[in-house]
Design a protein that fits this description.
The complex is a heterodimer of chains A (about 325) and B (about 250). Chain A has one helix at about 1-20; strands spanning about 25-40, 45-55, 65-70, 85-95, 95-105, 135-145, 150-155, 165-175, 175-185, 190-200, 200-210, 215-230, 235-250, 255-265, 270-275, 280-295, 295-310, 310-325. In chain A, about 25% of the residues are buried. The longest helix of chain A has 19 residues, at about 1-20. Chain A has about 325 residues and is mainly beta. Chain A has an 18-stranded antiparallel barrel. Chain B has helices at about 5-15, 25-35, 120-125, 130, 240-245; strands at about 40-50, 55-65, 70-75, 85, 90-95, 100-105, 135-145, 145-155, 165-170, 175-180, 190-200, 205-215, 220-230. The longest helix of chain B is centred in the first third of the chain and has 14 residues, at about 5-15. In chain B, about 15% of the residues lie in helices and about 45% in strands. Chain B has one domain (about 5-60, about 115-230): Lipoprotein localisation LolA/LolB/LppX (outer membrane lipoprotein receptor (LolB), chain A). Chain B is an alpha+beta fold. The chains are: A mainly beta (about 325), B alpha+beta (about 250). At the A-B interface, β5, β10, β12 and β16 of A face β2 and β6 of B.
Chain lengths: ~325, ~250
């Protein structure tokens, strides 16, 4: 299995290089994050996480393109190649669509904190955030059915060797409304979903999905609102509110998140956020400051406090930087 | 001779008979719009933003078709592969990091493009100015030694991003040399000045212009066109979600 995947990656790497015609772009990235936490017993701990990425991508013009991204250390604790590969795909335009083969990001539905429509790969993570969209080994067929509408069909190789997953979605732009409807079959589970996004004073989105075997195992509903206010004195205030309800399921309950941000300009942003999970009565309050002092350099500092059952559990300070070169 | 050149020459001939007829604000704005409208174009350039932390440069490649359809792809390191598709009043963003399509609507259109003094809303303004604004001629002025008309535009709709615009229009080339964009109450929001002109298809257009968001202290953006081709064949498929997320 490892040898086969290594061979695939090697073939993709060669394809990226050959489709690039010698004009492949090479991009490096460096990230450093240090988190200091103290728990309710007064015990301190420190975690330092450096990361480096190297991306090789062919130009976006043409009918064939590819991209390979290597990450060190690996994204998941893994001994095989998979954890080191953030993405490795080849994309080709066909007469009536396009084909993507390899490891590629996949982002379905909407939601920054919670996304009931993020049905692909849900078996590994209960709540997939929009910002943290992952890459998956897949074969994907994209079929446009209009300028703003398309159908996407995805085959997902099984990581457990039990079966192959399949997923598809229909993406429609209906005036000011964006509608998605899709279905996934993974590890003997059927997961249909519907997602809507529009604008009515504020940008809103609403999604629902269900895991079905012989009966409905889990039903999820997520919703969100986002709005920006532009201050005459300068700067922008943005407000985001999201909720996820799981009325049916082992980990049922309500999850709430709110985030407010103030950006005096595009180089600085101060944010305040809070998430609350009714099932565990876990409340997290955090504040963060982001600074972009130079092109491609981002510095971030966050302070957070976690409470469980309304008792203090943990506080943390995290400092991070990322640089693209 | 292109139809646009013919139109400009006709206008110039018409305006040269100034002793018989005085030019109107509507005629000035119609000539400015004709100067900035192409059947299609392909350009590359840079957006250079200066703020308190220094200078940030983003490079781009852009394609346009008609008055309301355009695609911009950023080619600079920090935002390589990010794209903006505008067709009619719809505006979509594509972030390659997450393979994510985002449709911008409402207040989100007022967000800044890559931290610059340009907003997404600036990119969705109708090129037929007279369809959205009433124009009046306010007088004349000299900008950098160039004789200009001062034209005041008042928006017909309350939803306009800039309810009042004051434009200084070059009397020889019918190109805007300076613009002041304000609220309905007259508070200035943005200022634009053209730094350099270039000749494209027989008409003058801005090669380099500086835009300042007056609500941001110490910030300005220079937009520079490095190269441009006009009236070239471009496939409709270029301006689709498929190409946006390619």
């Amino acid at each position: 299995m490892v040898a086969r995947r290594s061979l695939c990656i090697l073939a993709l790497l060669l394809s990226v290089l050959t489709t690039a015609g010698g004009a492949a772009s090479v991009t490096g990235g460096l990230e450093f994050a240090n988190t200091i936490t103290v728990d309710s017993q007064g015990t301190f701990s420190n975690l330092f996480l450096p990361a480096a990425t190297l991306t090789l991508a062919s130009p976006t013009q043409g009918n064939v393109r590819g991209e390979i991204r290597i990450q060190v250390p690996p994204t998941v604790k893994s001994t095989d190649w998979d954890g080191f590969i953030s993405r490795a795909y080849l994309r080709a335009r066909l007469p009536h669509g396009r084909l993507t083969l390899g490891k590629s990001p996949l982002s379905w539905g909407d939601g920054f904190f919670f996304n009931a429509a993020g049905i692909v790969g849900r078996r590994f993570e209960a709540y997939r955030s929009m910002a943290g969209s992952d890459s998956f080994w897949l074969a994907s067929l994209y079929l446009p059915i209009g300028v703003f509408d398309f159908v996407e069909v995805v085959a997902l190789p099984s990581l457990t060797g039990s079966d192959v997953g399949v997923a598809s979605r229909l993406y429609l732009s209906l005036g000011a409304l964006k509608a998605e409807a899709g279905y996934a079959y993974q590890e003997s589970r059927h997961t249909p979903y519907v997602s809507l996004q529009g604008h009515l004073g504020a940008t809103w989105w609403l999604s629902t999905s269900a895991d079905v075997t012989k009966e409905v195992e889990e039903l999820r509903l997520s919703a969100g609102l986002f709005h920006s206010f532009f201050l005459m004195a300068g700067g922008t205030i943005s407000v985001r509110g999201e909720a996820m309800a799981i009325p049916i399921g082992k980990e049922g309950g309500l999850l709430l998140a709110i985030e407010g941000g103030y950006a005096p300009d595009q180089s600085q942003r101060l944010s305040l956020s809070s998430t609350y999970v009714t099932r565990t009565e876990a409340l997290v309050i955090g504040t963060g400051f982001t600074l972009i002092p130079l092109e491609a350099l981002t510095l971030q500092a966050t302070v957070s406090a976690t409470f469980a059952m309304w008792s203090f559990e943990q506080a943390g300070l995290s400092l991070s930087s990322s640089w693209v070169f | 001779m292109s139809r646009k050149t013919l139109f400009i020459i006709t206008l110039l001939l018409f305006f040269s008979c100034a002793s018989l007829w005085a030019i109107t604000a509507e005629e000035i704005i119609a000539a400015v719009d004709a100067n900035t409208s192409f059947a299609s174009s392909h350009s590359s350039g840079a957006i250079i933003t200066v703020d308190r932390f220094g200078e940030k440069k983003s490079t781009f490649e852009a394609w346009s078709k008609g008055d309301n359809t355009s695609l911009i792809e950023f080619t600079s390191l920090a935002e390589r592969g990010q794209k903006i598709l505008r067709t009619g009043s719809s505006l979509y963003l594509y972030y390659p990091e997450a393979d994510q399509l985002i449709r911008l609507q409402g207040a989100a259109l007022r967000q800044s493009v890559l931290g610059s003094d340009l907003s997404y809303e600036d990119m969705t303004r109708e090129s037929s100015t007279l369809a959205s604004y009433d124009a009046t001629l306010e007088g004349e002025d000299v900008i950098d030694g160039i004789q200009c008309w001062i034209v005041k535009l008042v928006a017909k709709s309350r939803s306009s991003a800039y309810p009042i615009q004051t434009l200084w229009v070059d009397q020889e080339r019918f190109v805007v040399r300076k613009g002041l964009y304000a609220t309905a109450a007259g508070r200035a929001l943005k200022e634009m000045e053209v730094i350099a002109l270039m000749e494209v298809g027989g008409v003058a257009m801005a090669k380099e212009s500086r835009i300042a968001d007056l609500l941001k202290r110490g910030s300005s953006t220079t937009m520079r066109i490095e190269s441009i081709e006009i009236d070239i064949p471009l496939p409709d498929a270029l301006f689709s979600l498929e190409n946006l997320s390619w």
